[in-house]
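Sanity check

After download, print the first record. It should look like this:
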Amino acid sequence: MYSDVKNGTANELTKSIIELASVDGREPNPVPMGLIVQLGSVVNFNLKMLELVFEKIGTPFKYEEFKDRLERAKYWLEKCSPKDMNKLRTTRNWEVYDALDENEKQEISQLFAYLTNGGYDLNDLHLYARLPRLCGCLLAGAALACAGVIIQGVLNNPLAAPNVIGVNSGAGLATALCCALAPGAVRWTPLAAFLGALALVLLVLFIAE
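Expected structure tokens:
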């Protein structure tokens, strides 16, 4: 709100609120305390990374703007929410490392070399980590929408849904049977769920005819 008033983009209501809340001789700090705590916990309060993250999310705050709040943010995180603190290890976790096989150790070595050579930034995070997840969510949503349209078209009923005609029940039953009869065949549970749902839909169509 304060930033909008300074930029001249605020409406009259916002301007009046800021005017009534202002104190003579004091300049409001536009950096939200919650944002410092949230982002600081992610980057372990590394100043360079914190400024970079602020810039990436469209709020290019600099250290001079939030330096008086930084220590308070650290104190609040340590005392009020210690479980959310990210502590960077100074040494390798040898117990975990020794439990890895050679391929996994080689992958860690390649990742370490990639990171130390400056081959990673926040753009890579969006491109290689978040973008595939986003595309997967879009594809899953599109598949569910197509499945709903197909069910309603085949049954000629606009109220038809997977939970109404037994698709969910068939998938759940087949999954339970697969886990009970073959506990080690975890990779086959999606196929069992698909076959169970298909079988129950065919049964419903057969009874309906």
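If your output differs, re-run the checksum step. Summary of this record's structure: The CA atoms of residues 163 and 169 lie 7 Å apart.
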